[in-house]
Amino acid sequence: MPTEMSFTIGVEEEFLVVDAVTGALRPDGPALLPAARARLGEDVHPELHRSQLEINTPVAATLAEVRRNVTGLRRGLASILAERGYRLAATGTHPFSVWTEDPSVHPDYAVVEREYQQLAREQIICGVHVHVGVDDPELAIRVVNGVGPWLSPIVALAANSPFWAGRDTGYASYRTELWRRWPTAGTPGRSRTGRSTRRSWTPCSAPTASTTTPGSTGMSGPRPSSPRSSSGSPT
User: Fold this and answer.
1) CA atoms of 232 and 159, how far apart (whole Å)
2) Is the Cβ–Cβ distance between 83 and 26 less than 8 Å?
3) How far apart are CA 53 and CA 197, in angstroms?
4) Structural domains of the chain sorted by starting position, each given as residue range(s) with its CATH number in brackets
5) CB count in 10 Å sphere of residue 99
């Protein structure tokens, strides 16, 4: 393990596009994307549904840099939507609009709909994903193992999605319950360090400890992932 730890940080945050007056979902994300990119560059992306947009920060080396990038992208995108009669909603679920108001999956995610069908069509939920790129494979495994016990307290502190389809679900983070339906969701078990574990990461040229945290919206869990945080792209 290196004597001095080196890592990179990237954040992606998903938002709902809602009407500025009614607050209802508006499936107009693709129509808003050109204006957003003209002002903010390629750090704004479409998401699974048309009523969503996403920001990706550039790769950063410090938390201060990440905060500056997230704040700037949030404010910029919110301003662009406000000028056109929309608002940006940073929430895990929409409190009253239902998925049938935006059932079409964005063409970029056609393979997701083909593989998961109704799960993809109902998946109008948002999350904040924090990607930490770690150069050393052994350290990456230790990070994933070590962060696990902290996930439940983080969810408890940041949960903000108690409503679904106009009803109080009884959950502080119903977004977490919806996300658990996916086969890739949840927190993995502890991994052993060593060569045998690293072999299972062969496709990942630079393993990262990828943690999806609630921030404004909820979470799944930490896991070794592809080195997208080194490029600033979503995992």
Assistant:
1) 25
2) no
3) 35
4) 7-230 (3.30.590.20)
5) 19
Q: Is the pTM of this model over 0.85?
A: no
Sign of the dihedral through C-alpha 13, 19, 23, 26 = negative
Alpha-helix residue ranges (DSSP H) falling in the chain: 29-40, 63-82, 110-116, 118-122, 137-147, 151-158, 174-179, 195-199
Alpha carbon 18 to chain centroid, angstroms: 18
Q: Which residues contact 24 (CB under 8 A, 6 or more apart)?
A: 18, 96, 97, 101
Pairing mode of beta strands 208-213, 167-168? unpaired
Structure tokens at 66: 């990440």
What is the Cα–Cα distance from 195 to 55, expressed in whole angstroms? 36
| CA distance linking residue 47 with residue 16, whole number of Å | 10
pLDDT 10s digits, 105-137: 999 999 999 999 999 999 999 999 999 999 888
